[in-house]
Fold each of these.
Amino acid sequence: MKIIYFLTVIISVVPPPLFSSTFYLDPEEGILSNDGSSERPWTTVQEVLDSNLVETYAPFEYPYMEGDSLTLINEGAPVKAGDTLICRTGYYGSLHISRNFNTDYITIVAEEGNTPVFKNIRFTGTRYWYLKGLTITPSSAPEYENTTLISIEWHDWSGPSTYITVEDCYLHSIENTFFWSAENWDELSCTAISSQGKHVIIRNNYCKNVNFGISSSGDSCLVEYNTVENFAGDGLRGLRDYNTFQYNIVKNSYDVNGNHDDGFQSWSVGEGGVGTDTVWGVILRGNTIINYEDPNQPHRGTLQGIGCFDGFYADWIVENNVVIVNHYHGITLSGAVNCRITNNTVLDRDTTDSDISPWIRVGNHKDGSASVGCIVRNNIYYRSLSIDSPQTEDHNLMVRNYDSNFVDFGQFDFRLKEGSPAIDAGTRNLAPAIDIRGTSRPQGSLYDIGAYEYAAEEESNFFSPLIIYPNPFNTFTDITFTLLTYGDVHLEIYNSSGAKIKEYVDHSITPRTYHYTFHRENFGSGVYFVYLKVNNQVASKKVILVK
Ligand SMILES: [Ca+2]
Ligand SMILES: [Ca+2]
Ligand SMILES: [Ca+2]
Ligand SMILES: [Ca+2]
């Protein structure tokens, strides 16, 4: 199936400087001695870098440490800070960006409708690079290799990597693992994104059939709106301070080796080893973690939800997450100080073995020190609240009957159903201002318990009405809707003779507001029809292009 990542997330990118330039790359038709124009494109990103076509800064001496002085290299080269390299369809091989410190982002982006494929991308000693819309997989390489698909390194010789953004990329080991044995999975699955960088943004990427999903072991990073689907290791890892993981989907764990799989995992590392320091200020917000979608999934694993066993963890916020696992650890913090666990929904994936079911737990540190000052509030939980030492704990609700509480548990629609005792039973005190799908709290007069705030007028629609603005339009128009639950989105545009001219497909994305942009391209003036299908609900709307 053709998957087009064309999603413009609500948080838009800072516009490039006024005089920025655009260059084109085409590994099949390009020539390095060209000028990089649309008509005369260059070859691959690596060859452009290696041919000194990028003006940038490099370390003056090595090893390069953060803050050491830099020197301008390739002065007068055509590509400068703020510029964009547009990549056309083709195979780009491995890309290693090293010792390139820009003063503003240089963007490497897929041309619309094109699929540039990289084997892997590695950053060592870099600043201000932006990857957008790329496909990263070794499955197109002449020889398959298990590799980290994107590696952002804090390198002890070339220097640190900071201000790297990876957005709208498609990362996978292979497209289809149907024929993979457990041994194949163990040997061949690639880790998707491993980052040691600071100020790294990892947004709206689709990581499929991977070993570990997305790991951040640098400070002050943002990991949001990503999907990690089918993974052998841990879905997400956050090992350093002030990282935010929000609105990600992690689903389908594979049991193919000795790893204990976690939807999200963290631990501290101090001078005495694991568990002897503190991880500060992590935010886990609005993530959906699902042990497995298909009960017949091959190599089905047992997933721990949010598993944090080696604190301390201080000043964490864990809110609006949905955790559906068949394990004891739904949300567990062992060694927590001033952490807040509010408005999460934690449920047992398989209630036929109800003895194996998830709790919310704030436990002592493994060294026996007590957790202090934590708040556990407004949560739905299946098994128990398990608190080792006195913490603040109120307005939580045990839920065992899914049919009477959720719209459709079987379809992963965890919205509250009319009549659920969770509705209006929470407290406003520290409740998040919005729920997992962006609906403001409270709906009705009172706050609900769990990740979803019940909205009576929604009934069981999967999405809100389509808004197309402007309409009529001349250059482009914005198609907006709010996905009200977890779902597969198909957006199609037809011309007046019924031919499909555009298709956007996003699988199993998280509830929130989405914007798609319809550009006029070479289409003629006239009437077009926009169809939106989510799960089995369809809506359509007319849009007029006037040239
Ligand atoms: Ca596993
Ligand atoms: Ca783990
Ligand atoms: Ca169970
Ligand atoms: Ca309410």
Amino acid sequence: MKITNDKIETDFPFCNVYLECGEGWYPLIWGCMKEIQKYCSRVDISPPKVLQIKEKFGGLRMYLAQIDNSGENPLLLNSFYDIMNIVERYELISSLYCQMCGKAINERTRVNYHAICESCSNIKKNK
Ligand SMILES: [Zn+2]
């Protein structure tokens, strides 16, 4: 099934943002949100709100709101770090895939620092 900005918003109401990156990364974003959702339901907290998702220096950047920890619950803070670990893992993986078509790229076919493969870069130029 094709993953769209709408599908991500519908499946994960805590991720109600306009995605500022190519759609080749949408499946990664969907996977990341799925993991966050699963994790949060396992530890019984509500998922932190996603504030922004964009491309920066050839990688995905996902910004999340802090968990409300006004009760100063140390377990809640621990959960937030667990969630940040999930996010960081997906951010690292993203730089290995073309953000336009989603295919794996390597240093040789990478165009500048934008995580766009050579063939997608040529399509862009010819437009
Ligand atoms: Zn591509």
Amino acid sequence: MPFRIIITRSSSQRPFLTQSNSPFEVPTVRANQKPDGFYRSSKAQHRQLVFQALYHQGPISRYKLAEVLKLRYRTLRRLLSEMLHEGIIQESGNVIVRRGRAPIFLSVNPHGGRIIGIALDACEVTGVLVGLDLSLQRTSHAKIGRNSSRKAILENIHSVIAELRQSPEGRMAPLCGIGYGEYGLVDANAGVAVRSTYHRAWHDVPIKEQLQKSYGVPVSIETEERCVLLAEHIWGAIPDTQTALLIEVTSGIGFAVLDRGELFSGARGFGGELGHIRLVRDGDACPCGSRGCLETVVSTRGIIEEMRQGLRHERGGTPAGHADRVTLERVIQSAMQGDALAGHVVGKTASYLGQAAGIAINLFNPDAVLLRGEMFRVGGSWLLDTVQHEADSCVLKELKMGVRWRLSMLESAAARGAAARVFAEIFGFNLSLLPRPAVPILEKSRRTMAREGR
Ligand SMILES: [Zn+2]
């Protein structure tokens, strides 16, 4: 065969720049910035452009890359030389041809750096390690209690990061960034975890600053739900959708909006509190201080509690033996099998959830709606259809046409989304243009390259 691609060398062991001169800090321009500061910012931007071009179009030759980026060849050669030395890009192969000098192609080196994503939820810290092609390398978990102290939660976050870094995959390459996501209010601009939904002690934590100080790499923070939606967009149920909603039911309600490929966050990042829209006038008190919020009528704990009360009532007001053995799984399975009481409890929850979803669809006009949470793991498409049916009854017909309803089932989705979030920030990608996990370099055929004119 006269034409084939071979890997010429591996650059995964080469040194990466340290944080003090990190090439991928997001450039900031200050009013009193000196010329050399500007130079560094502009250089960082050029490096981001090179990385993005290699990501979307690699493997690609140097000449073609200069053409694509409209950069002077000398400037490009200097940037490439640095990036090759650091190992974040690689000479991915050369082409054996019958005559003439073989061109050398460049691409991103998936093992030239590592990104860590961390997610804090009700009972554990989840961490993922991904490569520079966003491929999942390793996952780690640490259990935490509902009443954990701030110190204990932070120690668990550090222990998950340490485990990932010390794993064989983590030791292969330097750490480039950490993404962090959690349930609750998050001020992404200030880098502060304002208030956790689950952990009373975890509030006003300057988590971005703390992680940056500890690890010396860029850190981004985001809400758990937005991270999940981003992960589903990249790896999961809605790869081809730019506008989507996620509704997550746990002991509260999580909500996120993807609007034309970007995550909607509002002025301070607190936008999207669907759980606190009022659905029941003079309803039960909500922890937020209001009454009758969606969270007071839809939650996993609420389903279990209402089923218990129903069972006790059926037994004449005395606690029935089996009422205390009620689990979410049993309630939903009983409802699916036609049990009247379970059907009533689950139906009521689905009805409220459908109404809230309908409001959200009327507001945001999405292409897709994702439903997530343990109740959907058990109830699957049966429960999804029930919620959709209710939502459809209160959405304008022009808005409900073409909405795809999906279950969100991606494992470790929040941590993966958090990793993708910081990856986008480091390498300057718009979230809407964030690459899918890269096609393995050797999969590009001669025909593809010829078609693309390389
Ligand atoms: Zn509320």
Amino acid sequence: MPQFGWEHFGDFDDLGAPDGECELCGTSIRYVFPVYHSKWGTMEVGEVCCDHLTSSDYASNQIKHQARRTRFVFSPRWSAGKSGTTSITQKGVALSIVPDGSSYKLRMNGRHGKLRFGSVLEAKIKAFDLIDSGIVGAYLLKVKLRLDHRHWERAYD
Ligand SMILES: [Zn+2]
């Protein structure tokens, strides 16, 4: 079996309990990472072996990300507001999950998103990924700069 040159592919699987078995070391695993090597094919391994085979910290980062996301989703910092809205401030972003008919939308720093979600949980998970990846921060900064610029222009009209 090749020791180097493996790649991870697709999403890892969370079994919810250590019910899986790493195909490399035989350890019981909860998080199953699919890996691929052109000279070997595919295997399903745990995060330690995935990092080892891919010479990266991809798998352990994924696990950390998932743990932080779970803490965020179930955080006591969420506060319930009017008409079923639930809000939190995360990394400087004022985030609300706003019910809209039978679905939910995100509101960040007062701006409504276009995405719709079937459940509050889904909306929270997506919001975490957007904020955590820095996508939202960059977007809001751009909006703010544009607004500032407009104010600046207006001042010199
Ligand atoms: Zn293993």
